[in-house]
Write a structure and sequence with these properties.
By secondary structure, the chain is an alpha+beta fold. The chain has a single domain, classed as Transcriptional regulator MraZ domain (Chemotaxis protein chec, 3-Layer(aba) Sandwich). About 35% of the residues lie in helices and about 25% in strands. The protein contains 5 helices and 8 strands; from the N terminus they run ββαββααββαββα. The strands form 2 sheets. It has a 6-stranded antiparallel sheet, with helices on both faces. The longest helix has 13 residues. The two termini are about 20 Å apart. Forms oligomers. Belongs to the MraZ family. One of its GO terms (biological process) is negative regulation of DNA-templated transcription initiation.
């Protein structure tokens, strides 16, 4: 389980450290790498552990090649996916095309999303956090707990 918000930097080569808590969660689950994909509707990246990527892959394989909406989504989000190894310092190298999509500059933010992690440009993350959610968009996850 991934949770928390962590501020980091990204260097000119596109390397940034995956937060230690996230590395520990990956190691505990036996996950040596992540898959980086565009995050639909957020202009951020999602970092999925291999097991979560496999679940997504299964859904993609079930899509009809004649379902235009599904094929457009596969082209947009799955075709941009990159399998990423962590180096010995716990850093990930974010490919240039994904850095450009998410607008990653110098300051980045990693956010835990439960099953996976998001990587944001810090200014974009702060804008996203400042936006008010409409009443109907708020989900009460604690209801009935």
């Amino acid at each position: 389980m991934f949770y928390g918000t962590f501020h980091h930097a990204i260097d000119a080569k596109g390397r940034t450290s995956l937060p230690a808590k996230f590395r520990e969660s990956l190691a505990a689950a036996g996950e040596p790498k992540v898959f980086l994909i565009q995050a639909p509707g957020m202009k951020a990246l999602r970092a999925l552990p291999h097991s979560e990527w496999k679940k997504l892959e299964e859904k993609v394989l079930q899509a009809s090649p004649f379902d235009l909406k599904a094929q457009k989504n596969i082209l947009r989000f799955v075709s941009s996916a990159q399998e990423i190894d962590l180096d010995e310092h716990g850093r990930v190298l974010v490919p240039a095309q994904l850095r450009a999509y998410a607008g990653l500059q110098k300051d980045v933010v990693w956010t835990g999303m439960g099953r996976d992690v998001c990587l944001w440009d810090r200014a974009r993350f702060e804008e996203q956090q400042a936006e008010e959610m409409a009443e109907g968009d708020v989900i009460d996850f604690f209801k009935g707990v």
